[in-house]
Amino acid sequence: MNEFAPTVLVPVDVSTDERPDPDLLDLLRPARVVLVGWYPVPDQVAPEQMRDEHEGEAVERIENVASHFPDGSDVETLVVFTRDRSETVDRVAEEYGASVIVVPRDVRVVERVFVPVRGDVNLDRILSIVATLLAESEASVTLFHAAPAGDEDPTVGQTLLEGAFDRLTDAGVDDDRIATATVESESPVDDIVDAARNHDVLVIGETKPSLIEQILGDVPTQVIKRSESPVLVVRDTDA
Q1: What DSSP string describes 140-202?
Q2: Residue 10 to residue 99: CA distance in whole angstroms
Q3: CATH number reported for the structural domain that contains residue 29 in this entry
Q4: Which superkingdom (predicted)?
Q5: 90 and 42 in a common domain
Q6: Is the separation of the CB atoms in 179 and 141 below 8 Å?
Q7: pLDDT in tens, 106-137
Q8: In sequence order, what are the residues at sequence separation of 6 or more whose Cβ sits closer than 8 angstroms to the Cβ of residue 135?
Q9: How would you list the strands of the sheet with 7-13, edge to edge?
Q10: Which is nearest to 114 in space by CA: 200, 50, 34?
């Protein structure tokens, strides 16, 4: 396992049979995974009552999800009965020092990872996490930059991508597994979403550290809502 092992938080609704796709679990193998089994509590019901009635089945479901991780995975589980999923995810992420929060979606196989690159200070952490996850995977990665039309010197995006490319190769990712693409865009969100459709997993950085109200910045929020693939949200814990 890579010396840099990020903590990845994976929320799972244990009131249902929801479970992350096995290929996504395989991609997460180099990470320390915290599986959060969250059970929704209606407003008119006390959390203690829900726990008394459903804790056994909730624990069984989250342990079943954990059993599907590849051998050797570092997985910790917990079950939380909550009225507010976002607040719970945010709190647990802080408690466990999670670098990444997974927005699970169906995926057939993880062969292509998509990383929209912006000029954020969070870029170093994003690239470190991507390099770590790719260390035990054969997946390729596309680094993509959508420059707002007329607002940016075209060479800025290319320079940004070249630097990101070099950081991944310095971290041990073979250069033939890395592609770069930059576009001048009238609508960066549309172009990111369209390009991401040809990939299996999206890795995107949040703009602010809190997920309480999904405050991820305008572009990340819209991309996550419109993505058809699993999304790994890299937290900006230095913000």
Answers
A1: EEEEEEEEETTTS-HHHHHHHHHHHHHHHHHTT--GGGEEEEEEEES-HHHHHHHHHTTSSEE
A2: 11
A3: 3.40.50.620
A4: Archaea
A5: yes
A6: yes
A7: 777 899 999 999 876 588 999 999 999 999 89
A8: 2, 30, 172, 173
A9: 74-82, 32-40, 7-13, 100-103, 231-234, 201-205, 112-116, 140-148, 178-185
A10: 200
User: Considering the domain boundaries, does residue 216 fall inside one?
Assistant: yes
User: Residue 197 is which amino acid?
Assistant: R
Give the CA distances from residue 58 to residues 84, 87, 106, 185, in Å, rounded to whole numbers and listed in that order: 17, 19, 22, 46
* pTM beyond 0.70, yes or no: yes
Q: Mark whether 14 and 120 lie in a shared domain.
A: no
Which amino acid, residue 32? R
Quote the tokens at residue 186. 């009238």
Interval 214-233: pLDDT, tens: 434 456 777 888 888 899 99
